């Protein structure tokens, strides 16, 4: 007769799982809101304030498509994060970085919301970078090197 020993979950693993879920939820929210923002810019670009003397001048319909695509990709990646897929962590960092750049370039059109999305993206990048996968396939918090 064999005995099974239950796998003990450490506090580090719980932190890691929590941060991954946190990043997935934030990325889902960011994606859905970016999809809405993209649709608004595509359908009716008069919703956004335009600044005539901004260094980076872009067509708002084009920016709408950029936000729509980034939002859709973010939602797909968030679904992968809920399943703790490594590819989702890596691409989540890349997409969150692209969202930061896109929102920085669209600051004059929707300034407050762009700053909120930049902050959300920063939290997503932090949450995805602070955990690492160990040999057992579970995530744990990265050690501090001070």
TrEMBL record:
InterPro entries: DUF7144. The chain crosses the membrane at residues 21-43, 63-82, 87-106, 112-131. Residues 20-133 form the DUF7144 domain. The keyword Transmembrane applies. The keyword Cell division does not apply. Pfam families: DUF7144 (PF23636). Keywords: Membrane, Transmembrane, Transmembrane helix. This is DUF7144 domain-containing protein. The lineage of its organism: Bacteria, Bacillati, Actinomycetota, Actinomycetes, Kitasatosporales.
């Amino acid at each position: 007769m064999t005995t099974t020993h239950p796998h003990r979950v450490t506090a580090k693993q719980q932190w890691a799982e929590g941060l991954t879920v946190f990043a997935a939820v934030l990325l889902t929210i960011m994606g859905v809101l970016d999809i809405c923002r993209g649709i608004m810019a595509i359908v009716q670009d008069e919703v956004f304030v335009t600044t005539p003397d901004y260094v980076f001048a872009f067509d708002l319909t084009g920016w709408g498509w950029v936000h729509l695509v980034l939002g859709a990709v973010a939602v797909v990646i968030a679904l992968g994060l809920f399943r703790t897929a490594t590819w989702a962590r890596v691409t989540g960092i890349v997409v969150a970085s692209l969202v930061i750049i896109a929102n920085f370039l669209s600051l004059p059109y929707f300034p407050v919301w762009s700053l909120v999305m930049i902050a959300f993206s920063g939290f997503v990048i932090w949450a995805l970078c602070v955990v690492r996968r160990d040999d057992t396939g579970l995530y744990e918090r990265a050690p501090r090197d001070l």
